[in-house]
Prior knowledge:
Number of strands: 28
Structural class: alpha+beta
Number of domains: 2
Distance between the termini: 56 Å
Strand content: 25-35%
Mean pLDDT: 97
Helix content: 10-25%
Shape: globular
Largest sheet: 9 strands, antiparallel
Amino acid sequence: MKTxxxxxxxxxxxxxxxxxxxxxxxxxxxxxxxxAAEEVDVVTTGTFGAMCSSGAFINFGHSDPPIRMxxxxxxxxxxxxGLAAVDTYIGATSLIDPPGTxxxxxxxxxxxIAGKKVRLQAWGPGTDCYVRKxxxxxxxLDDVNEAYLYxxxxxxxxxxxxxxxxNRTIYTYMGKLLPRMKNATYSSAGTLSPLMNDPHMDTxxxxxxxxxxxxxxxxxxxxxxxxxTPEEVNGVPVKGARTLAVCGDMKQMDRRFVRGLDITGYxxxxxxxxxxxxxxxxxxxxxRCAISDDQIYAEMVDYSLPSARPCMQRYNxxxxxxxxxxxxxxxxxxxxxxxxxxxxxxxNTLKDWIEHGEFLLxxxxxxxxxxxxxxxxxxxxxxxx
Length: 385
């Protein structure tokens, strides 16, 4: 047994042994979980993919004379005007007005983190204490008081594989799906994925310090659509399950780990690099961190169905990452919607920070729910689709 305090002391002294989730697989196979847990202090994980449920809070500061901003645009993209006078929240999927240019809230966030100035246009009703009715200026991260990502749902714990059995091409958040099952897409870093390495949230909870888009962030709450009910194989769920809400200071972040996306036929999203350190407190945690791609399964479903998509077949990530899978005698090409090389870079960067004493671990102050399910939206009244 180890404690957070003991591990952090080893980090401070430069003695901590840190491995990525990829590296630790072979070690546990060779030496077993008990021996590996004695040697290893921290396992780093990583993911880098589209996370639509993301966005940024920004405080612009007060102009002279002041304005209460109720209608706000950043580079032409709508931001929320229902907070205090000069606070806003811009969602990653917000669209430029008029839409159709492939630019949205995610790109505004990327531009700000890249150090660019963005155009701020805002309007207000004009009041005795906020007399101004409009403003048109340019701001950067250096100009604003605070700017931080607050993402309600990131790091999905596994996700379904998408294919298309219909006779037409369809465009989804899982990418372009060709007719008659000519391709299939998936979106997980498999063995590197943070929530695959701590599937029941033994070490991850509210307050956990993480790598967020090249800076330091924190787990702030359970993510929306947090679901503990999916079936598990080898201790991990076979479809979308737990998620995390995370936050972090945009002024610390690095553009290399943030990308605005324009997904054809779907819309705007934000790709983010996130890494979570797993403290090796005991052999059980070590064993869970040794899970490999051939042990992690995902369900393939038909995205041409509008809802109620049953499982067609399960595949492990070793099969998915090979470039093709077999289904009822046919070969289906596979591709990933997330970046495995990006996930590896996140895990290695976090490893480097810890090895150099630049990143300490902290014990979560509140654990995630052990039981939670996702409820559907119940339609009531006359206006049904």
